[in-house]
Amino acid sequence: MHFFKALCYAAMLMVIAVQTVTAEVHRYLYLSSPDGAQGQNRSGNGILVFDIDNGHEFVRRIKIPSFSEGIRGLTGNAKTHRLYFSTTNHRLGCYDLEKDEVLWQRTYDVGCDRSSVPPNGEKIYVPTGWWYQGEDSGLLVINSDNGEILKRVRVGPQAHNSIATLDGRYVFLGTRTTLTQFSTKDERVVQTIHPVGEEGVFPFTVDSQNQFAYVCLGSHVGFDVVNLETGKVPHRVFAGKEKIAHRTHGVGLTPNEKELWISDQKGKKLFVFDATEMPPEPKTHVDLSAGGHGWVSFSLDGQYAWCHTPDVIDVESKEIVTTLKDEQGDPVASSKFIEVHFEDGEVVKVGNEFGLGRADY
Fold first, then answer.
1. Distance CA 157, CA 135 (A)
2. Separation between Cα atoms, residue 132 and residue 127, nearest integer Å
3. Does the global pTM surpass 0.90?
4. Bond from prior residue into 195 cis (ω within 30 degrees of 0)
5. For the range 326-331, what are the long-range contacts, defined as Cβ-Cβ under 8 Å and sequence gap of 24 or more?
6. Is the dihedral of CA 38, 43, 44, 50 positive or negative?
7. C-alpha–C-alpha distance, residues 314 and 259, integer Å
8. CA–CA separation, 204 vs 249, rounded Å?
9. Of 44, 256, 283, 361, which has fewest CB within 10 angstroms of its CB?
10. 173 within 8 A of 219, measured Cβ to Cβ
11. What percent helix, strand, coil does the chain show, rounded to 5?
12. Of 280, 333, 328, 272, the residue nearest 306 (C-alpha)
């Protein structure tokens, strides 16, 4: 009898071992279309899914009718296994990655720009939009379960991009030449940094230690370095041998935080800087196949860079290694995309549409 029990137990361990060995993580890029800020390389309506581990081959299209309003942001959360999308028509929606369905959609009197969700997945922080200049411009704090407004935080005009930090402690919001840092516990303002950037409100990113933020310039290709510990802007860095007199829209740290990339969409380039130096030093640039809205982000493992063009770039070699194409074989692009990992049908990791520093995560 004891022998039989031992045999059964051994067999069970073998099954578990086999399952452990054969369990496989599948990595996908979820790209939304049409981009509400970019006309180039659109591809109809919905989320286009690409297989990262199979040469970024097109897998399928998830049709969501409200996407025709133009997508303004696409964020996600691994704990809730959901994506949250915002549209030009003041709409915020929630898509369940495992159930493969839209759970809820709501519209608000103000707009919905690039939103963010802390790791616990409980709240969505929704900027009211760069196009909205009312006195009550700022953040909507939304219940992620049903889209109900929990709080409205007034900040300043043209609330555009928001980032929830990977440690879950803070949310950053970009408004006109201002960067505001909030506590996620109670939405208390930790600090307001002004002025930053040259004009308007533009993309930014933060490192994994919440020590530095990098904010795109509005009149030149370059960025401001913000010291988040002092609230000062000690450095302004320009790309190129001579100043390039048009805006920068897109900045990202490689996950290991060794490089900082910025977008020159008009010049069809991504400029690369050595982020191990302070201020970051220029290294090289990547020539892109097209112009567009401007954006840059990275795969979680740091192997690939994605931007506002159909180009997929190898981070180490700085070479374009493939092109994103839809089911018709046409090049497709958007500045609203996110990486998702599945294992046995369950979501295990979700990336970020911003190029956040991840050296400590």
1. 7
2. 10
3. yes
4. yes
5. 326/43, 326/44, 326/48, 326/58, 326/61, 327/58, 327/61, 328/43, 330/41, 330/43, 331/41, 331/289
6. negative
7. 13
8. 9
9. 361
10. no
11. 10, 45, 45
12. 333
Beta-carbon contacts of 183 under 8 Å, excluding residues fewer than 6 positions away, are 169, 170, 190
Give the integer Cα–Cα distance in Å for 160 and 180: 12
Burial of 186-202, coded b for 16+ CB within 10 Å and e otherwise, reads ebeeeeebeebbbebbb
Hey, is 101 helix, strand or coil?
strand
Would strands 204-206 and 149-154 be described as parallel, antiparallel, or unpaired?
unpaired
Count Cα neighbours of 240 within 13 Å in the Cβ-side half-sphere: 14
In residues, how long is the chain?
A: 361
Report whether 249 contacts 263 (CB < 8 A). yes
Would you say the C-alpha torsion 140, 81, 89, 332 has a positive or negative sign? positive
**What topology is assigned to 26-350 in CATH?**
Methylamine Dehydrogenase; Chain H (2.130.10)
Q: Read off the DSSP letter of residue 40.
A: T
Q: Which two tokens stand for residue 82?
A: 């959901």
Give the C-alpha separation, 56 to 303, whole Å: 13
SS3 of residue 53 by DSSP: helix
* pLDDT per residue of the chain (361 residues) written in tens, 0 to 9: 444 444 444 445 444 444 444 579 999 999 999 999 999 999 999 999 999 999 999 999 999 999 999 999 999 999 999 999 999 999 999 999 999 999 999 999 999 999 999 999 999 999 999 999 988 899 999 999 999 999 999 999 999 999 999 999 999 999 999 999 999 999 999 999 999 999 999 999 999 999 999 999 999 999 999 999 999 999 999 999 999 999 999 999 999 999 999 999 999 999 999 999 999 999 999 999 999 999 999 999 999 999 999 999 999 999 999 999 999 999 999 999 999 999 999 999 999 999 999 999 9
Which residues lie below 8 Å from residue 79, measured CB to CB, with a gap of 6+?
A: 119, 120, 121
Residue-by-residue DSSP string for 289-357: S---S--EEE-TTSSEEEESSSEEEETTTTEEEEE-B-TTS-B---S-EEEEEEETTEEEEE--SSB--
